[in-house]
Amino acid sequence: MKNNLIALLFISLLSSCDKELDVQPQSQITAASYWKTPEDVVGAKSGMYARFRAFTNFNLYYLGESRSEIMGTGILNADFRIPYFQNRLHKITAPGPDWGTIYTVIHDINLILKYAPAIAFTSESTKNTILAEAYTLRAYLYYVLVRTWGGTPLLLDPTESSDPETIYKPRASEEEMFKLITDDLARALELFPTNTYPTRRGAWSKPAANALKGDVYLWIAKRRNGGEAALNTALAALQEVQKSDVALLPNFADVFSYTNKGNKEIVFAVRYQDLEAINNYSGDMYIRDSDLPPGTDAATLQKIGLGGGMNWWAPSETMRKQFTTDDKRKDKSFVEIYSKNAQGNPVYYTSAMTKFNGFVDANGRRFLDDVIIYRYADVLLMIAEAKNALGQDPATEINLVRQRAYGDQFEKHRFVSSTKAANDDAILKERLFELAFEGKRWWDLVRFNKAFDLVPSLADRKGQTNLLLFPLSETVMSRNAKLVQNPGYE
């Protein structure tokens, strides 16, 4: 906790990169006075993760899933969220999250990468691990950026002056961004000293870097014509994750239990803890007791427990109807809530996400579940995806996931390999069932080239591939004259 507070104070003062890269250095703390000891580096690393956690509170979900077919309006006014799932983004009225918070974390990372190498550590392994974490997080953030907006400014050094040429850069090409991403991952994987996990799996590690590498190379293979070379690289990286201390938990619900954070299925999750973080996005998908309709049945009340949060938006009918009743993931993903009409018959009212429903204390329901970046079931399904693209049988990995999901009903759902196209459809649907509300679905749909087929709000706009990217907000554009708007949002 002390390191976190010191780091946050330091980074807040030293950071010369505000929300929109409109930079005016004001700190009296300089590199000469701060970057002296290993403790300085450790404190800066804590600040880096604290800033990253602030980004994952809401924005990571908005970017990675909100535009998919998973969410719709709840009983309250979904407000600014509506243009996401309706795919009606606009550079002024509904641009979505901007990239300012991401670049703030990148600035923190660049400070570490610039100054930490020159500082003597008692343990070289400790220093290498910190550098590896920084390289991995930078790769991840640029991967978020390039999938969301396409090419964006490529900043490799901390912003420590007000020189416009240093601060304001044009958009890099996607090719340049993927070069940086893959180079950073290569450096990180060389630096991580062991294939182990940190305590509670709340930081990047070698297995997590390999999970990210597999993800990146699947995108390169399927969206950037990377071909078999990229697929083989993805598969090899994902299979390296399997060599680490990781396993599917027997019970799906246990993966998400607040009291079971950092379990063996987690590869990397952003740590949320009381007094260090506020409620995250999951609180916007639950429901208050006062908003439940009269006569809600006992079974539903038991699933909800003590209410909380706000039902701003809710799991969509498009998603809900795809789950079978014998899928154990259904109840731990969402609950449907019914009122009664004048004749006493049930009428659909709303639904609530139950996967990340936090915990209850004297203050009510608290939404402080960790935000999972990678877990083993995700890795298994990415292995299946890579195998299928390479013409190999993906059945083993798919069936491992399905065995847990269906238990004694598994034989009814056993996967048998078919054509590549049919297998891909099965893998994508399995990812829907397994990873709903984990911030993956939009990017999955884009990677599989299925957004226009499966998202209702895009069904009549096939061919408008510019919609796969977010617009740059007018605020971002106004602060950097070198930026060019994404096509279709001019």
UniProtKB/TrEMBL annotation:
PROSITE patterns: PROKAR_LIPOPROTEIN (PS51257)
UniProt keyword annotations, A-Z: Cell outer membrane, Membrane, Signal
Subcellular location: Cell outer membrane
Domain RagB/SusD: from-to ranges: 370-452
Signal sequence interval, chain numbering: none
Membrane in keyword set: yes
Keyword Transport: no
Family designation: Belongs to the SusD family.
Name of this chain's protein: RagB/SusD family nutrient uptake outer membrane protein
Organism of this sequence: Larkinella humicola
Organism taxonomic ancestry: Bacteria, Pseudomonadati, Bacteroidota, Cytophagia, Cytophagales
